[in-house]
Amino acid sequence: MRMPLLILAAATLGACTTAPQPEMRSAKAEAHLQKLLAGKVAGQPLSCLPSHRSNDMVVIDDNTILFRDGNRVYRNDLIGGGCSQIGKGHYALVTRTSGGFGLCRGDIGEVRDLTAGISVGSCVFGDFVPYTRPQG
């Protein structure tokens, strides 16, 4: 009798997880991401994006943002959850750079409701992974 109870307890504990599960990307967002990264390969992650212009930012979903720089695209997967509502309707992502290095890992983006002029959330930037077309 003890053995089945131990197996049941172990199975129950094994099914638990302490790490939050990532949100599933919608099929539309995944297709958009794949289209923008098509033919490109990932490079070494960078801690900072030296310069960016807000009109070169592409919101894939609440968890992923791309920054375009000519033929290069930088992918940023936000840390610890995303920025709810970015890129939707009258919401915008406001970023501030510190130290003159551009936008960096750990910098906080603020989601603002442009109509009401209030902050509705925030998120933290992760590493910036460059994607370029292979040489040759």
Supply the key terms.
136 residues, globular, alpha+beta, single chain, three-stranded antiparallel beta sheet, 34% strand
Shape: globular
Strand residue percentage: 25-35%
| Count of folded domains | 1
> How many helical stretches?
2
Query: Kindly, what is the distance between the CA atoms of the first and last residues, rounded to a whole number of angstroms?
Result: 66 Å
Q: Based on DSSP secondary structure assignment, what is the total number of beta strands?
A: 10
Helix/strand/pairing class, anyone? alpha+beta
Average pLDDT over all residues: 80
How would you sum up this structure in a few lines?
This protein has 136 residues and is of the alpha+beta class. The chain has one domain (41-136). It is built from two helices and ten strands; from the N terminus they run ααββββββββββ.
Walkthrough of the structure:
With 136 residues, the chain is an alpha+beta fold. The chain has one domain. The protein has two helices and ten strands, in the order H-H-E-E-E-E-E-E-E-E-E-E. It has helices at 2-15, 27-37, and strands spanning 41-42, 48-49, 57-61, 64-69, 72-77, 91-95, 103-104, 108-113, 118-124, 128-132. The strands form three sheets. The protein has a five-stranded antiparallel sheet, with helices on one face. A hairpin with a 4-residue loop joins strand 8 (108-113) and strand 9 (118-124). The chain is globular, with a radius of gyration of 19 Å.
Record the SSE blueprint.
Layout: H1 2-15, H2 27-37, E1 41-42, E2 48-49, E3 57-61, E4 64-69, E5 72-77, E6 91-95, E7 103-104, E8 108-113, E9 118-124, E10 128-132
Antiparallel strand pairs: 1-10, 2-7, 3-4, 4-5, 5-10, 6-8, 8-9
